[in-house]
Amino acid sequence: MPIPESFRTHWWRVALVVAAVVVACFSTSPFAGLFGLVPILVWCSLAPSRRTGLIVGMVLLALLAWFVLPGALDFAGRWVPAPIEVYWLHTTLAAVVCAIGARRGFLRLFLLVVAGFVVTGGALFAAYESPPAGEGVAPGPAQLRITRDFECGSHNCWGVLEATGDGAPEVLREYLAEKNFTPAPPSEISRGSRFCRSTGLLVDHEVCAEVRPRGTDAAQVEWHVN
Where do transmembrane segments lie in this chain (predicted)? Predict the structure, then answer.
């Protein structure tokens, strides 16, 4: 059975989109993962040739993986993009790559960048006075019995985990260390053990968690985004 001409012409586009979808599935935010696909879809409509399409497409795929996978694996450091940066920084870098590769479609790429900043504004507004996401703290160690809640006050919200089980305070400290949280100065109010981790290429995204023992087999963890 002969291979359809359209497939022989466009197979690389299908392969690129499928690979990008696989990467996006690892995103900690489904919406961020979907939005991260947009530059690759735009590129598939702009690529001037199969060779250029594949080369630039692989660069875009690597860029998407950089903005998605380190966060999904709970890495930390200045080389790890902050969650919000997938909307504006990833989109801007991808638009530059597309412009260099295609040398056309500048209006579409400009609108892509604008859309990235608009979505960033919407994400920041939605996060205002909203409880934080898991941020590497939740759901917590599997060997403990955990309930998750949140509290709000003074225009800010923070997450709360109540954990019980053998050696819960120490288990939680080890869990946070495995998630690349590092010890920080204790809280001046509760004097509990405090751990923080930072991500962000251009925007600092710091998450701090405080472990408060409630005996030898119970503990509370509060975390917030600075």
Answer: 12-42, 54-73, 85-102, 109-128
